[in-house]
Amino acid sequence: MLALLFPGQGSQAVGMGRDAFEASPEARAVFAAADAALGLPLSRLCFEGPEAELVRTEIQQPAILTVSVALLRALQARGPLAPAYVAGHSLGEYTALVAAGALGFEDAVRLVHARGRLMQEAVPAGHGAMAAILGAPELVERACAEAQAACGGLVAPSNYNAPEQTVIAGQAGAVAAACERARAAGARRSVPLPVSAPFHCALMAPAADKLAAELASVRFSAPRPPVVTNVEAEPNADPARIAELLRRQVTAPVLFVALVRRLSALGVTRVLEVGPGRVLSGLVARIERGMTRANLAGMDDLPGAAAFASGASQGS
Prior knowledge:
- This protein folds into 2 domains: about 1-120 and about 205-315, Malonyl-Coenzyme A Acyl Carrier Protein, domain 2, CATH 3.40.366.10; about 130-195, 2-Layer Sandwich (Alpha-Beta Plaits).
- Helix content is about 50%, strand content about 15%.
- The chain has 14 helices and 10 strands.
- The strands form 3 sheets. The chain has a 4-stranded parallel beta sheet with strand order 2-1-9-10, with helices on both faces.
- The N and C termini lie close together (about 10 Å).
């Protein structure tokens, strides 16, 4: 049984998507639609940068979504694609909704452009921070609780990425204190992340509230196949629940470990990561070693990805 996974922020690179644009008319149509929907040269920023512009949250989010959908359309042009489930990491959940036919591509591009801007504006520069901690999640959760109690600042787990890798987010001083406590308690390492805002924590509440108005203006259809969500790590096929799940996603931690384990419990044996980078398939290898993994990060991957998807969709 096949599932498709779509990446989130951090997977971008200058030049991404150019090969798909040049080789696939279906991909070219996706880039043209994104440029028109946003009224800015998103394609050129993907292909040429500059990197300082591409990494801006409000550009990075629609850029990664656009490249991921362009690669998906190039794959679909090779033949029928029948995943049992789709899912994404944070931003990637919007791509999953497009893949499932629940959200129009142009609406998705506009939503994530607004989402990126609102998340960037929610916390003044320098006030928030994120860090990855290598250690058991229980240790990280305890370190966050102790640091928050001691210094009064907000810090909490924001991304459960792998069994021994949890990202935390919050006010800068509280994040530093939680990292120190985690290392003292036995964490192997803590790594500050070069991000522009503390995503997926309560400090993002202003962004979530404003995004709710944007989500209310969009029509969602029933996802076919179901989308396994970040917030619940459960499949959702009810269009009436999508907007609220996406609103909650802004402040709630990404339950990626639970999401992958749920896919496995549902019978998924193969996952195909579609989009720039190979981050998610690497995480899957650390969560469910028995899952077979493949990537479609560029057109060089297309023949193998098409064969992989076809075999998985037939149950082999």
